[in-house]
């Protein structure tokens, strides 16, 4: 199966700090669902930031969605992230003064490609947003409510809908279930993975919770990968 992420000899550290990531090889296939695990501070969030282009990578090769991120400008990496990736942040990063629906529609207003994909699937971007909100278990009564008035679980689902709208090729999720109890985690994961499967997107999901393994095609432990690189050196 075609790889949408291919990385070789990745090295990353914060300025004046020790190495955070030393990964000899990392691959993600089209449509694959990958769980990235490891203790706090091991570099899970840093890996997502590198893949999404927020941080410039240092590697022998670093290809994401057909683009060489080693050669791309910050603006080009931002454009790739906005048009072809959906990101679910740990703190959700919803805009509190916007309604639920407005938050979900934001990627389609910033990036025409996301809006065009919605129109190809539904009559409009708004129709697609409402369909996603309904599929993720958010009732119509809250669709026009400001996002800061929602519960944590509701905010999490809004963030997921925002990431999924416009059928991006890659979903990146940074521990979005960490604030939920086990029952709510399981419910959210079932809903999210169903929508990811329907879009055909690949997914990298960061979590330290091994109970989530069942939802993914495979899991990797960053601590083990880093240790393997250091032993080889």
By helix and strand content, what is the structural category?
alpha/beta
Distance between the termini: 31 Å
Low-confidence stretches: none
SSE string: EEEHEEHEHHHHEHEEH
User: Going across the major beta sheet, what is the strand order?
Assistant: 6-7-8-3-9
Percent in strands: 15-25%
Strand segment count: 9
Provide structural commentary:
The protein has helices spanning 44-51, 74-84, 100-110, 112-121, 125-135, 152-164, 182-199, 222-232; strands spanning 3-13, 19-29, 33-37, 61-64, 67-68, 85-88, 170-174, 202-206, 218-221. The chain has 8 helices and 9 strands. A 5-stranded parallel beta sheet has the order 6-7-8-3-9. Strand 7 (170-174), helix 7 (182-199) and strand 8 (202-206) form a beta-alpha-beta unit. The longest helix is centred in the last third of the chain and has 18 residues, at 182-199. It has 233 residues and is an alpha/beta fold. The two termini are 31 Å apart. Helix 3 (100-110) crosses helix 4, helix 4 crosses helix 5 and helix 6 (152-164) packs parallel to helix 7 (182-199).
Give the topology, please.
Elements: E1 3-13, E2 19-29, E3 33-37, H1 44-51, E4 61-64, E5 67-68, H2 74-84, E6 85-88, H3 100-110, H4 112-121, H5 125-135, H6 152-164, E7 170-174, H7 182-199, E8 202-206, E9 218-221, H8 222-232
Parallel strand pairs: 3-8, 3-9, 6-7, 7-8
Antiparallel strand pairs: 1-2, 1-4, 4-5
Helix pairs in contact: 3-4, 3-5, 3-6, 4-5, 6-7
